[in-house]
Amino acid sequence: MPKLTRRTLLVGAMAAPFVAKAETNTAWPSGTIHLIVPYPPGGSTDVIARLVQPGLQQRLGTTVIIENKPGASGSIGADLVAKSPPDGSNWLLTFDNHAANAFVLPKLPFDTEKDFDPVFWVGTAPYVLCTQSQKPYRSLADVLAAAKARPGQINYASVGSGSIGHLAMVLLAKQAGVSLVHVPYRGGGPAMNDLVAGHVELMIGSIAVAMPQIEPGAIRAVVQMGRGRAAALRDVPTVGESGFPGFEADAWWGFFAPAGTLKPIIDRVVTELNGLFREERIARQLSESQQVTFVRGGPEELRKFLREQMQTWGTVVRENAITSD
What we know:
alpha/beta
């Protein structure tokens, strides 16, 4: 048996943490992975999760289960992940209102920046202001002219108070110096139904929600809110092109982990997600069905983007005393 010297014990003690860490890293994933989608089945976030789940499962060599945990503007599912152990077993795939919840939900049970580690920024898609085809609005200028001629009478639907679409319209109306009436709905389906029926003048929604009704001519896109024109709406100008330079409001999707998740685990997931979202089948389906413009950004890109989104929409909420439904 080798003689145990003071030097041997000291070296062994110093090496132990590194060995333990290496074992932790190489052992992951050691069990089932839960991908939390904080919205109901069928929405864009759920669509993305179900597209990548089979490939992620194959690449990681373990079971990946999608769990829909809807409620409170996505905060119920997000809270579940925020309070999970940072061991790589629970991940959050969320949507744009993740950046606004801290301001519109007064009792949010987590800190949006401190309780999550950003992982992967999938991409963006523009919000679009639409109207029923028989309505007279063909440009943003038409909408603003009507709002000035009939103050407080031009209304617009959104998927809910405190949603990014709602906040974007509040910001636009303020910059334009007009008053628009907000009609909040509980989801895009009911709002779109009333737009098509002509019960509301306008609707603000993501391009993915709008396109199925734009294509057959039931509704018309008035203006889009992305930085540039979406491929599906090449003839529709942006708000920036319509007299409001720099105005931008996009839907976006991102993956997050509980704060404190080991960097090697996050790096592995980033690598696999980056590969999946570059696969032709997945990229084509999301660009066609959800009109996604891919970013495929890593943790620092998502962290920076989230902070910018929180600054933008937090200011809108505070200056206009907006709360969620």
